[in-house]
Each structure stands twice: as C-alpha cells, then as structure tokens.
Amino acid sequence: MSPPPSPFAVHRPRRAGPSRRQLVLATAALLAAAAPAAVRAAGPLSRARFRLARDFAVPADTFGLVPWTDTVFQEGDGVVLQPDGKVLVQKSGVYELVFSCDWDAKSERDIDLRKIGIRCQAAGQPDTPIDAHERLGFANLPGSDPPATARYQGTWAPPPLPPGAVVSTDVTVADLGGTVRPGDTATASHTGLSAAQMPDDALTRLIVQARVIADNRVRVSLFNPGGAGVIQVPTGTLRVVAMSSTRTRGSNGDAWMVLHTASTRLEAGDRVYGLVEHKVAGSLLQATKSSYLQIDRLG
C-alpha cells in the first residue's frame, strides 16, 4: 500500500490542454482589467494644497469663508484655486478633502465652540445662502470659560476685637491658572470660626470680608459691629480663594484642528470651500504651514 502524498510535495503540472489554455487567457484578461484599479490604489490621480498669505481674522459669531490665496503644490488638473478662495472642481471624480486649521493663542477669549467646515457649492448654484450648499464635513471644538483661580492657606491668630474694631491681614494667593486682579472675587474662611470654639452671638455678629487689592494679593478683614462685647477668634487656619470675574475668561495656547472628509463624489463645475467660526471677535486663523486645504482625487 503506497503512502499518501505529502502536502509539501512538488508536482509537475501536465501540459495544458485547450481548456487549460482558455483558463490562463481568461485569468490574464482579468488581471489586465484590474491593473487600473491597482494603479489608483497606489496614490491619488491628482492632488493640490492651498494656504493663506496672511492671517485671517475670523468674524465674530458667524461663519467666515477662508480666503485661500497660495497654491502650495498642484499635481494634476483635478481642481484649481479661484480668486475668492473657493476651489473649482475641473474633473468629476471621487475626492477626499483635508482642512487643517492653526488657531492663534488666546487670553480670555477661548469660549464657546470653535467650528471648522467644508461645503460644496454645486455648479450653477448661487453663492448664498451657504446653508443650501452641501456639507462635506464639519468639526466643533468645545471651548472653556472657567474663572482663573488662586488660593492661600496659612495660620492666622487675630487679636481681640472690641466693638467697632477691624483687623486685617494681607496674603499672597498662589496662581492656579491665571492672575486675579482688583475687581475680581475673593472669599475667606477661618477654622476658628466654629460653634465649638466661639459663642454663638459672636459668630452671628462677626463680619468676614475678603477683597483683591493687587495682582494675586488679597486682604482679609474681620469686623466687630458691636453688641457682643469683645470678640476673640482663636488661632486657626485661614483659607482664601480668589477667582476672576471677567465677562470671558477661557485661554489657550496655539491650537491645531484637522478635519478629514470621507470619500465623496464631486462633479466638474462644483466649488468647495472652507469655513471657520468663533464666538469672540479677534480670533485668527494663522497663515502657517499648519493652515491649509488639501484636495485629492482618488478616482
């Protein structure tokens, strides 16, 4: 009984007959047909990138059309930049678009949403309203608006307070995210102000005040309005919290935001463009290498 053939054995194929030759020819034809698809998969048929010549001041609380001015590179003739900053599609096909946005650093302005988007204005469609233009992609980056906070903690032994007397101490608060200045808010507490250590009448009548008197400098005052005799606050821990009370507060360093669309069909004559929006006036889309619109035609 002969052993079964090894799965690793090498066998010489028999000479191809007519049916085998037809199979070989059909396979070759299929490979030839698939060759263009393989070429497309190797890279885009055309690509172009556009930038700003100067910083773009983003309109407050409304979308602004990004006025691209410079062509960084242009490979192929799929699209071409227009004088108004829009990009004209010259060849119909499947495209992908990348909008990269380099926001400037902001002090007390990083509030609400930062928004970027790409729209497509179909051939023959009017410039307005832009809401009628197709949304190819949008991204919203939440802002923040917390107050700047500074704190102090240390031991304080206030002297006795006769009726009508005021005693104060000035402390420097530690910056924990921004400078507090005169006009900002401050609060103070003291561990000696407790029912276990002071008469209830004294606790009721004693007035505690805190105010920002200079940058990161807070004055804490105790006032005895009278009616309770001399008030003695025991030695304890003084705690101070100061916070900014400006209308807007949020801050940030340079921020980079990128939007990449899915593959989408664009027709010759369409125009695509970038939009940016920020609630606070004065935000800038910086004219750096990180601010651009790139458009690749894939098929």
Account of the protein in words:
The chain is 10% helix and 41% strand. It contains two helices and 21 strands. The strands form five sheets. Strands 1, 4, 7, 17, 18 and 21 form a six-stranded antiparallel sheet that branches. Strands 3, 5, 6, 8, 9 and 19 form a six-stranded antiparallel sheet that branches. The longest helix is centred in the first third of the chain and has 25 residues, at 18-42. It is rod-shaped. Mean pLDDT is 83; it is low at 3-40.
User: What's the quaternary structure here?
Assistant: single chain
Stretches where pLDDT is under 50 for at least 5 consecutive residues are: 3-40
Overall average pLDDT: 83
| Domain count | 2
* Structural category: mainly beta
Largest sheet: 6 strands, antiparallel
| End-to-end CA span | 60 Å
Give me the count of strands.
21
CATH class term of the largest domain: Mainly Beta
What is the share of helical residues? 10-25%
Level-2 CATH architecture of the largest domain: Sandwich
**CATH topology name of the largest domain:** Jelly Rolls
Radius of gyration: 35 Å
User: What is the global morphology?
Assistant: rod-shaped
Strand content: 35-45%
Order of helices and strands: HEEEEEEEEEEEEEHEEEEEEEE
Q: How many helices does DSSP assign?
A: 2
